[in-house]
């Protein structure tokens, strides 16, 4: 079969850094071709070459048999190549229909016609989203559907999905995979980038693994197992993914919350965590897990309920109180909430506890700070050029380590991780898991939110499950199955889902 | 293992060391100053005389105090439109009180009045989350109105009690006028605070990503409020400096001065989106504005024309900043 896309010998350097070192890649029509590799392996760079954002230093891009010289993303779009970015490129204040036809909106708009065409496109994907809804009001999942409809409206023959399910709940991810199957049947060629190997193994026809700017191998999905692919990517197996288990004992209770409510998203949540324990918080996206931990951390107000730390009731009115009380939060979005990206690694790492590094007049003692951060960098195996480089210069995994460093430095008793490995490559994941385990081994209490079930199963001593603002149950390691977790997370939520779709 | 080389690549393409954008960004303001100096020197024989240069500095002293306050505010991604009016309030409060209570107390009261205005704006902005633009716009009319009420719209002679302040405005130490010394001291202190202290670091960080700073347990509202207090105090001080040149307190000084202060900060390369900007460049920004005004005076450009030129120069500086960002991609 003729290849829809053929990239051959692609090279690309940034300054002295060789990001791509002669990569070959091909895509057939009606195929899902997964592109795997750690962050920094060059996947996104390769896709940016295909999407016309970067011009390759060497190598050829061939689409439908014709060699291309893309000068910009518009050229690539013209040839039917659509990239669905993880951070979606939608105008949130405009309607669904306006977004879908944004590039070719006629100068005189017939709204009925525009809305009708938008509705047809969306329903062809199996969804019912009102074309006149404002995009900013939609769930992330529905925004993604809009993004896909937008690509379809331009007759895209190739769609690149860059970590599409990272921001979705398990069920929405499921629906996205269905859409992808539909697109494949229509003959669209799909390039699928994801860190979630179970998904990749369900939908991919072929898999290409990249490492250090080259492609390691392209294989038929049928011919390999998950463990083979992990080994190709990092040289270690799934069992090794969660790092070494450190001996640890559960001690006294560190945190207890009773009937915490905010009158809206959280409806009376109670839980308790002991020192040395790693407790998981599972559930669907939108179940209120993030809101609950933000309330414990004082980032959101609780209307009623009590919080006890080490048996004593505390009032936490702001993150400042929480940090003083010894709570740390590694937030969901490291770029928006975790880091001051433009600022040096050093400054980010010490931000939560500057007082020991500051003299009486408020002057920061640079050398003392530097040595503290150097120690943290060594312990966390942070890969950085200089600790004075901005945090934005790091890869996702290393950025996350800087957020971790901040809370290691703050030295609290209770650490809360909200999606600690989102957008982090496999190698860094293992390191982060080991660090979380070592925190617990030191006698701290750890609470982990994750939408990756494997992560909860591999990391946690027990898993609490949330649904619609309440804790619906607890799983012990013997009960760790996808089915049991989903039952606690989803039963009775069918009505809510129906409402969300209109 | 993913090596360090590969780690960098999937983040945004990084700026290399030799990059026009970086150079423009770092030295753009200085380049403007150098260019101006060359033009000014070739245009007028008087320009490069000691007397004229000192004059430029003296005339920049008031603006510079406001610009330093403005820099702190802009670093937090705010704006303070009330500084010109607060300068008038500072001038009036000082002039009224000085006859009865003496210089020390009246200066203190003037600075306190400025600080109080800043405190009100700051609390509204930081704790009640009102937009800085509108809040300080309101404070601008309130402070101006207050100074007109207190002075009954009349200029206030400081008389004998004000001699100390008039001396400050007219005398020199080591050949440099006192207002220029004050300006230097304020710049140096501000530079030290921004570069070496926790306060300066957190102010900049708040402008860059307030949410990340808040979630690190930093009392961001306190820091945000305090920059407006600083701005208010410095604006009142600028009002006193302005009064010191004439010995007369007036509710009409500082009209439009907030624009000069903002212009100086922006010419200095600070980002109105917060987090980026420095004291040295702000100083250069102030001097650039001072030289432009001086040049136009020497060339006898009429006042109305001067305003048009000034606006064009500010747009030019913005374009330069824009271009340097563009080259950095």
UniProtKB/TrEMBL annotation, chain A:
Gene3D superfamilies: P-loop containing nucleotide triphosphate hydrolases. GO terms for cellular component: plasma membrane. Its main location: membrane. It is found in: Cell membrane. One of its GO terms (molecular function) is ATP hydrolysis activity. Pfam families: ABC_tran. It is a peripheral membrane protein. The keyword Cytoplasm does not apply. Transmembrane segments: none annotated. Signal peptide: none annotated. Keywords: ATP-binding, Cell membrane, Membrane, Nucleotide-binding, Repeat, Sugar transport, Translocase, Transport. InterPro entries: AAA+_ATPase, ABC_carbohydrate_import_ATPase, ABC_transporter-like_ATP-bd, ABC_transporter-like_CS, P-loop_NTPase. Residues 5-237, 241-493 form the ABC transporter domain. Belongs to the ABC transporter superfamily. This is Ribose transport system ATP-binding protein. It comes from Mycoplana azooxidifex.
